[in-house]
Amino acid sequence: MIERSFADCVSQQIELLQAGKPLAAFDKFFAADGVMFANDTLFATGAGEARRKQEPFINTASLIEGMITEVRSIEVLQICVFRNKTSFSTSEGVRHQIDGLCWQQWRSGKIIEERYYDNSHMRLLIAQGVLKRPDMMIEAYRGRQSDGSMSLDCA
């Protein structure tokens, strides 16, 4: 089996998300033992739990229009960050707009940690420069608690 490069994996993931296929991207790239956080609160441990928690939201969409912007990655650290501005419509025709920031730590072609931020958490990270320097998250979380939670310094 040919091992894909980190850049290829990130690119393929972004292509799937842009195509409105978030579960396909998840299934292909999220590690079985990966962890997922939402605004620094543990959301799920393991791919099974993470998928089960996301499916109800994704499955209500009759149309997903992927829009991933401001993708930045650091290959040597295997981290990437991007804005998720995807929109989706429900079967009732109600349109929803996502506005979030996604930070990922990869290993061996899989996402081992994903941190999703929205609202004030996202705005703070953007103001602190995470889109230009995604490695700042590694530095910020070096002292994290055993459950992975830790608030960023707002100073």
From TrEMBL:
Superkingdom: Bacteria
Matches recorded under Gene3D superfamilies: 3.10.450.50
Name of the protein this chain belongs to: SnoaL-like domain-containing protein
Record organism: Parasedimentitalea maritima
